[in-house]
Amino acid sequence: MKLNTVACLLLLNASLSALPVFIGTNTGKHTASKGIYLADFDPATGTLSEPKLAAEYHNPGFLARHPTQPVLYAVGSPNNPFPDGASSVAAFSIAADHSLKLLGEASSGGKGACHLTVDASGRTVAVANYGDGRIATLRLDEAGMPGKTVSVISNPGTGPNKSRQEGPHAHGVYFDKANAHLFVPDLGLDKVLVYPFDAATSKLGAALPPLDTAPGAGPRHLAFSPDEKHAYVINELDNTVLASSVDAGKFTTIGAAPTLPGDFTGKNSTAEIEVHPTGRFVYASNRGHDSIAAFRRDEKSAALTFIQHAPCGGKTPRHFKIAPGGKWLLCAHQDSHTISVLPLDPETGKLGKPAHTVSSPSPICILFAP
Questions:
Q1: pTM of the model
Q2: What is the C-alpha separation between 53 and 38, in angstroms, rounded?
Q3: Backbone φ and ψ of 5, nearest 5°
Q4: Contact, 285 vs 303, CB < 8 A?
Q5: Which domains does the chain possess?
Q6: For 285, which DSSP code?
Q7: CA angle 82, 85, 91 (to 5 degrees)
Q8: Residue 209 buriedness (CB in 10 A; 0-12 / 13-18 / 19+)
Q9: Beta-carbon neighbour count of residue 301 at 10 Å?
Q10: In this predicted model, what pLDDT tens digit does every residue of 45-75 receive, in sequence order?
């Protein structure tokens, strides 16, 4: 039996019990959102329950889960403003019923925090601050509480898009499985920055050679193949997916694929990217065209072959997540205030029409957190 077939069978035999889904949102005058929401997803039927408020917090955009402790993290706006105007990293305890309780908050090390991740040891949170482009690491105690800021890095520079690339805009943070490097797509600099990471101290070392994208591409997020030999970068400004190989933190560019149909003339910006758990497919979201672009991935060369543009079921697909089991894709529509569930065929990679849609105020992040 081929390895891919075995992987698919293992995924399809995943637990069919209801899965808790946390939803990060954008709060403010133009939305009814009050914080982080919670819903239950049934992987047997593809249904999602109506989201309920799990914890009040201001602008809890991107979410991350501690690897061992029942703690959820969110970037946001602090309840008690910091003197330097920095954003926050908020920590919430997760109860047995998946309700949340705010434990505390710490400075994100910069302004306009938009993305965070927790390292494999559970002792570091890394944060991307879009507003001023700063990259920060925070030390976590043994219970998962964020404490002092360990590293804060600023990178000067601009890009050719004067309205969007007037300075650095760190947009994502990703540790590798070896817990040895931190990767940071910076939309303003047209680079994916690479830093050595010391898990024992939470410190970032001197920058390694970056991955340079095309001028004006605007790298936003990235996703690794399961073996981490390849990385795929979603470029927000030129609507492409950049494929590259990775070896010990060093990138080699392979090529780029457009996320839009050739005859599309409207406004669009890409948002999220994910590799299917089997490693056979790559998905990217289009805001404007309001679709998910699906690609078949060559597991040896990393090259992408277009499969389809699937309607996402709503307006402005800011974020999406493939459900455990690999048979469903949940898409968060920021401007239509909904989340749609799309069936996903793990054999062909194709997405079907939205099977289920629920109302959710300004959703911008989906996190499965069993």
A1: 0.94
A2: 6
A3: -65, -40
A4: no
A5: 57-212 (2.130.10.10)
A6: E
A7: 50
A8: exposed
A9: 12
A10: 999 999 999 999 999 999 999 999 999 999 9
